[in-house]
Write a structure and sequence with these properties.
By secondary structure, this protein is an all-alpha fold. The protein has 10 helices and no strands. It folds into 2 domains: about 45 residues, Homeodomain-like (Arc Repressor Mutant, subunit A), CATH 1.10.10.60; about 140 residues, Tetracycline Repressor, domain 2, CATH 1.10.357. Helix 4 packs parallel to helix 7. The N and C termini lie far apart (about 125 Å).
Length: about 230
């Protein structure tokens, strides 16, 4: 008898990975949003609004165009979110806890210098310049960011002055009374920080400006405190 012939069984097919549809978990969704906004920021800074494309943002973000459009209606909405989040978050992130100096004037000068050096980041100034250049195309963005930035910076100024004046003779001055502190903080920022910001937006050599910050702050703080002490 001939030995029985055994038929070979077909090889088992590898199992296909399970494809999940729907929204990703919150932590993953946040990571995707961060990647998209970081990529969009990079492309807008390199290409400007007109030169940027969703295709390039998707490539840099390692994300599909459908994922981007699920979050942002179009390029205008993406640009608006990049500018709003970037500029406003920068103000909110400043931490004035580490104040140095023995006198109130030294502590306030140290805090203000740190604030301005920290705030005049090259890429952020470039993004602000781009937003200004696109103000005609985005009038609501310009006004909204301006108002919110002013409100946030005033809150920051209040925290800064409150920290500096926790002890010492300034606490008893009328300018630092709780009901006047917001106005005093705004005047302080308009005197100390705003002139340097305006120069940063319109002067190309930020290294030259950076070297002048400490001297400008020292003069401005001296003037500010002298004005606050006037009866």
């Amino acid at each position: 008898m001939k030995p029985s012939t055994l038929k070979k069984l077909p090889a088992a097919k590898p199992k296909r990975a399970t494809v999940r549809f729907g929204r990703p978990p919150k932590q993953l969704a946040g990571e995707v949003d961060t990647r998209i906004l970081a990529a969009a920021r990079k492309i807008f800074l390199e290409r400007g609004f007109e030169g940027a494309s969703i295709d390039e943002v998707a490539e840099v973000a390692r994300s599909g165009k459908a994922t981007i459009y699920a979050r942002f209606r179009d390029k205008r909405a993406l640009f608006t979110e990049v500018v709003t989040r970037d500029i406003l978050s920068r103000i909110s992130e400043f931490d004035a806890k580490t104040l140095t100096g023995g006198t109130i004037e030294e502590r306030l000068t140290s805090a203000a210098s740190t604030l301005i050096h920290w705030g005049l980041d090259r890429e952020r100034i470039a993004l602000m310049r781009l937003a200004i250049a696109e103000a005609r195309r985005f009038p609501e963005l310009a006004s909204t960011v301006s108002r919110r930035a002013r409100d946030l910076s005033t809150d920051l100024g209040i925290r800064l002055l409150s920290e500096v004046t926790q002890s010492g003779e300034l606490r008893s001055l009328p300018a630092f009374a709780p009901e006047r502190l917001a106005t005093t903080a705004r005047l302080f920022l308009d005197l100390v920080a705003v002139p340097m910001l305006l120069r940063a937006l319109f002067e190309m050599d930020l290294d030259v400006l950076d070297a002048e910050i400490d001297q400008h702050v020292a003069r401005s703080v001296t003037f500010f405190l002298a004005a606050c002490r006037v009866p």
